[in-house]
Write a structure and sequence with these properties.
Bound molecules: S-adenosylmethionine
Order of helices and strands: HHHEHEHEHEHEHHHEEH
Helix content: 25-40%
Largest sheet: 7 strands, mixed
Radius of gyration: 21 Å
CATH topology: Rossmann fold
Distance between the termini: 29 Å
InterPro entries: Methyltranfer_dom (IPR025714), SAM-dependent_MTases_sf (IPR029063)
Number of helices: 11
Protein name: Methyltransferase domain-containing protein
Shape: globular
Strand order of the largest sheet: 3-2-1-4-5-7-6
C-alpha cells in the first residue's frame, strides 16, 4: 500500500468516517451511554435506539460533548447507507443458522465492524462474532481497547495478513460473512480466497486499487498492441491503470460466479469521499459454474492475462 498515491491510499471512503479516537489515557471503563439516554443536543431521528453514543464519539460522528453537526449527520447517513446493504445478509444467516460469524479484512480502524456490532450483533443473545483482520499492529491494539471499553465482547482483532488468516487457527473453519472495504491492492483477492476457503455465504467487497492486472497489461502491451485494435483501450498509461482496475473487478465477479455465487455490483452512492466506490455483493447459491469459468478464461486469453490464471482460480482449491 505504501506505493499507492497518497490521495488514494488511506480510505477516502473512510477518511472522515473511520477516525476512531485514540484509546483514552485512563483505562477506566467508559459509561455505557446508549441512544435512549441521548441528550437533547442530538436529533433523535439521527441516532437509533440503543446505539452506543460512546462509539459514535469514538468514530467522531458525535463530538465529545455529544453534539452533532451537519457534517457528522451526513457521515451517519453514509454509515446507515452501507449498513442497509449488509443488514439483510446478516439477518439471512441469523435466521438460517441461529448465530453468525463475520470476518472483516483490511479492517483498518474497524469502523465497519464496530458499526455492524453496535447496530446488529450487540442485541443478539448468542455466540455471534466479528473478527477484524489487520496487518498494522497499532490499529489492532486500538480496536481491541475500544471494543473492551465499549463492552463489545463478541469482537476480536487479529494482527494477521489476509493471506495468513486463511490458515490461522485463531479463526473458525467456516465463516458466514466476509467483508473487505478498501483492503489494499491484492488483499481483496486474498479476501475472496479466504471467503471461498471458509465457504462464506455472503461476501461484501468494496475494492481498492489493484495494480497487479494493470502491470501485466503494461508488460504485455507491446505484443498485444500489434494484433488487436481493442488494445487501444489500454494503450495510454492512465488507461492501462484504469482499465486494469476495471478488468480486475470483472475477473473477481466471474471468479465468484465460477464458484457458485450470485453476484451483484452496484455503486456505493453517497460515498463521495472515495473514487473507489464499487460495491460487489456475492451470495452463495450453488449456481452453475462452467459458463462463468469459461468466460473468465476467455477474458484472460483475450487480454493477454494468462499468467493471472492462478490469481483468479476457478477450480476448487484443496
Ligand atoms: C484503505 S484501509 C481501509 C480500512 C477500512 N477497511 C476502511 O474502509 O476504513 C486498508 C487497510 O488494510 C490494511 N491492509 C492492507 N493490506 C493488508 C493485508 N494484506 N492484510 C491485512 N490488512 C491489510 C492496511 O493496513 C489498512 O489498514
Amino acid at each position: 500500500m505504501g506505493s499507492q498515491p497518497a490521495g488514494r491510499e488511506f480510505g477516502k471512503l473512510s477518511a472522515l468516517l473511520s477516525r476512531l479516537a485514540m484509546p483514552a489515557k485512563s483505562p477506566k471503563p467508559a459509561k455505557t451511554t446508549t441512544a435512549s439516554a441521548a441528550s437533547a443536543q442530538t436529533d433523535p431521528n439521527d441516532i437509533r435506539p440503543g446505539q452506543s453514543l460512546e462509539l459514535l464519539k469514538a468514530l467522531h460522528i458525535l463530538t465529545r460533548d455529544g453534539k452533532m453537526n451537519q457534517d457528522s449527520r451526513r457521515k451517519l447517513k453514509q454509515v446507515y447507507h452501507l449498513f442497509q446493504f449488509i443488514e439483510p445478509l446478516l439477518q439471512d444467516v441469523k435466521d438460517a443458522r441461529g448465530s453468525l460469524s463475520l470476518v472483516d479484512h483490511g479492517a483498518g480502524k474497524s469502523y465497519l465492524g464496530f458499526i455492524l456490532y453496535d447496530l446488529f450483533f450487540k442485541a443478539l443473545q448468542d455466540d455471534s462474532h466479528i473478527f477484524g483482520i489487520e496487518t498494522r499492529e497499532e490499529l489492532v491494539a486500538t480496536s481491541q481497547e475500544l471494543a473492551q471499553r465499549l463492552g463489545f465482547g463478541g469482537m476480536s482483532f487479529l494482527n494477521l495478513s489476509v493471506a495468513d488468516s486463511i490458515t490461522s487457527p485463531a479463526l473458525p473453519e467456516t465463516v458466514d460473512v466476509v467483508t473487505a472495504l478498501h483492503a489494499c491492492n491484492t488483499a481483496t483477492d486474498d479476501a475472496i480466497r479466504f471467503a471461498l476457503a471458509k465457504q462464506a455465504r455472503h461476501i461484501v467487497l468494496v475494492p481498492c486499487c489493484q495494480a497487479e492486472v494493470a502491470a501485466v497489461l503494461r508488460k504485455n502491451k507491446g505484443v498485444q498492441l500489434a494484433g488487436n485494435p481493442l488494445t487501444e483501450i489500454w494503450r495510454h498509461p492512465i488507461h492501462t491503470r484504469e482499465f486494469g482496475s476495471q478488468v480486475t473487478n470483472v475477473l473477481r465477479c466471474l471468479q465468484l460466479e465460477a464458484h457458485g455465487y450470485q453476484v451483484s455490483v452496484t455503486e456505493l452512492v453517497g460515498w463521495e469521499h472515495s473514487m473507489k466506490n464499487e460495491l460487489i455483493i456475492a451470495q452463495y447459491k450453488d449456481l452453475p459454474r462452467r459458463r462463468p469459468a469459461e468466460r473468465l478464461e476467455n477474458v484472460l486469453d483475450t487480454l493477454g492475462l494468462q499468467e493471472m490464471r492462478e490469481r483468479f482460480f476457478t477450480a476448487p482449491q484443496v
